[in-house]
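Box 3.1 A note on notation
Throughout this textbook, protein chains are presented in two layers. The first layer is the amino acid sequence; the second is a token string describing backbone geometry. Keep the layers aligned when reading.
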Amino acid sequence: MIKKLIAMVAFVLAATATLEAQEIKWMTFDEAIAAQKKKPKKIFIDVYTNWCGPCKMLANNTFTNKDLAKYVNENYYPVKFNGEGNEVVNYQGQKFENKGYDPSKANTRNSTHPLTAYMQVQAYPTMMFLDEKSDLITSITSYMSPTQLELYLKMFATNDYQKIKTQDEFQIYQSKFKPTFKN
């Protein structure tokens, strides 16, 4: 009886660990910057809003992909940032605070967060890639499937983007890229 109980507990713990490994371990912006100072790694930011349909599709369809989640967790400090939220962010020596945030509008259009404007986010969802010094590499705006996003995640994580200087070179890179994330 005790052996069966121990075996069941071990199974549940293993299943829980597997489930956790399949989820992106989102951080706040400030947590990612602090982690980056201790151990340099690129930052991946999902800039979303509560009312944005494509943002919800990213959250439900793309970011739940176990291969993508594992890759993001291993290669980036992932940040989920509400572009119209009230999170206080310290970035590049500045404090960004959304003083126009209205809690009664939490699920509708709200005041744009000053960091969103500072980072020149024009639409939602926007996914941003920061280098190991927290400097912006680039932003990508739109919904993407796991395999579409895989190209960018790997291109920036491996620094392949530094070898690409023209649109033609990017198209060649894209045509040769073989996605490995399962849908």
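The CA atoms of residues 57 and 143 lie 7 Å apart. Helices lie at 2-21, 29-38, 53-62, 66-75, 114-118, 146-157, 167-176.
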